[in-house]
Amino acid sequence: MERLGLSFCCLAALLWAAPAAGQGGEEDEEGEAGEAAEMGTGTDLRPRGVPLSEGNGDGGVESTDKDGDRGGDVVTTDSESEGPDGPPPSADEPKASAEDDAERPFFGVSLGGKGTVGGNLWTAPEHSPAGALIFDGTAGGWGGGGGLYTELRVLWGYLGLEVDVLFERNSSWHNVTWDNVLGVDWVLKWTSLRVPILVKGIIPTSPVRISLGMGPEIVAGLGAETALVVTKGEDLVPATDIDGLRQAFFTEAQTDTYFTLDLGFAAEVWQLAVTFDIRAGFNLTQPSDHDDRITYTMVGNDLERLEIIASNSMDFRALLGVAWETGFGF
């Protein structure tokens, strides 16, 4: 009986201790979860004994997939999922062209000056008579000068209008040799006022913008004179004959209208622009017939007067300038 009573006592003690042990285990788990929450790591709900995966160092989350062929885990990181061209573009990122347009004003203005230098071309006139003395073939020369200009740009710099006021000094000459004895340069010199009005399409890149322009150019002659330079055989011809040619040689300035093409570059420096242009002008109003360009007045067999218009058939210019720039608008 004593043994039976002792057995009942032990069994009762075990039954009383089991709930207390279970309650203590739950309290331990709750304590561990609280400590994890205080450390900012969150609560791990996985069964005990399963190892935690380590971070990839970039803050990305590793995921494991069972690969039966390789017999191991396949790890994919956030950086690998971006693809070869980097992360996909965000819808919130602005377009580069829109940013550039926002930085440029809707209206832009340039005020400055330009210097010019280049070559002149006189094309051979049509219907030259057999006894023509000068400028019956192709001739050429040079020209240069400078002046002021302004340029107005609109539509964030994509469209422009340029107007120049340029003064130039020109010189063209035609060499004539008679019987391989006497060589003479017949020289025309004149001053002109050039006013090009150019509509320009512009690529408004920074710091150098590029433009292509075209439009009419008014070239007004302000004055002209002639010169006769003996290049060969001066000692073989009487001086009076040379003087007679000089006195008979006249020229007249005229006003022409050109069609002008312009390729321009402008480098932005602070609020200044350093410009470089290449231009080609084509004279639309120069007569093509010989007798309309050159007139002879003869007295018997003697040349009384030889008059020629002072103009180019076409010319080519390089222009270097500097301008102050500003902008305003939306």
* SSE run: HEEHEEEEEHEEEHEEE
Structural class: alpha+beta
Global mean pLDDT: 79
Tell me roughly what share of residues is in helical segments: 10-25%
Q: Please name the CATH architecture of one domain.
A: Beta Barrel
CATH topology of one domain: Porin
Strand order of the largest sheet: 3-4-5-6-7-9-10-13
User: Helical stretch count?
Assistant: 4
Rg, rounded, reads 46 Å
State which percent range the strand residues make up: over 45%
How is this structure best described in words?
It contains 4 helices and 13 strands. The protein has 330 residues and is α+β, with helices and mostly antiparallel strands. The protein has a domain at 96-323: Porin (Beta Barrel). The strands form 3 sheets. It has an 8-stranded antiparallel beta barrel with strand order 3-4-5-6-7-9-10-13. Strands 8-12-11 form a 3-stranded mixed beta sheet. A hairpin with a 4-residue loop joins strand 1 and strand 2. The termini are far apart.
Give a quick precis of the structure:
The protein is of the alpha+beta class.
Features:
4 helices, alpha+beta, 52% strand, three-stranded mixed β-sheet, eight-stranded antiparallel barrel, 13 strands, Porin
Present the secondary structure layout.
Blueprint: H1 2-38, E1 63-67, E2 72-76, H2 96-103, E3 107-122, E4 139-154, E5 159-178, E6 182-203, E7 208-232, H3 239-248, E8 249-253, E9 255-269, E10 272-283, H4 290-293, E11 294-299, E12 302-310, E13 314-328
